[in-house]
TrEMBL record:
GO terms for molecular function: isomerase activity; magnesium ion binding; phosphatase activity. This is Bifunctional phosphatase/peptidyl-prolyl cis-trans isomerase. GO terms for cellular component: cytosol. Transmembrane segments: none annotated. PANTHER family: PHOSPHATASE YKRA-RELATED, PHOSPHOSERINE PHOSPHATASE.
Amino acid sequence: MIKAIFFDIDGTLVSFRTHGIPSSARQALDELRGKGIRLFIASGRHPLDIFPVLDFPFDGYVTLNGGYCLAGRDEVIFRRGIASADIERMIRWQQGPEPFACVLAGEKGMCINFVNERVTRVRKMVETENLAVVVPFDEWSAAARRGVLQLIAFFSPDEEPRLMREVFPDCRAMRWSPLFADVVPAGVSKAEGIDRMLARFGIGLDEAMAFGDGGNDIPMLRHVGTSVAMGNAAPEVKQAADYVTTSVDDHGIARALRHFGLIA
């Protein structure tokens, strides 16, 4: 019996084409809520990038790829920051000949060192507000550096192995776009965040379902009792799921929930 469902946002619950939740998915959420099923977000986004986009009352939010988890909108049940040594290495790297645009996501806000074409393309793709203030990293205080929960690093997949080895040895990279990677503390993932959330609500892992479409969703799709990949997901994401539905724009959420008998 499914008692909790976790939804990724971009490309899963929210369309890249319309930048909104399809009406069929919204109706499904209402029906699930009426049956007493707990509904959660599991996203790489910062809470500041989630709350303006989703007006549905979710029971909790696994944000920053599991590094910062909230029951409701206010109760912090888990947080894990990036080691200060990795942040210092990254700041030194930015002062060299190969700087890359990077967002530092803290608990209360975000900072970016500069905006380039990659950053602009991603902002248009997800239609997010410009919430990351442009501040050179050398102006960040030591206290702020210690409070970094996630980095949004705008480097390519080809550059990733070297940077993760030389700059971020205590972190892991999670990616759903070739334009950037989410850099999180080692051990952090949506699966970890789901475990924290289920423990908070007293729900078993076999009673949980998850929907996703990106590479950063693979850990949670492999982890929960029942997993669904969207039709617009990459092949490796589909292989990690128990079931593949149609795309977000082709009512994929509602179709999968009907397949599993969770909505009429």
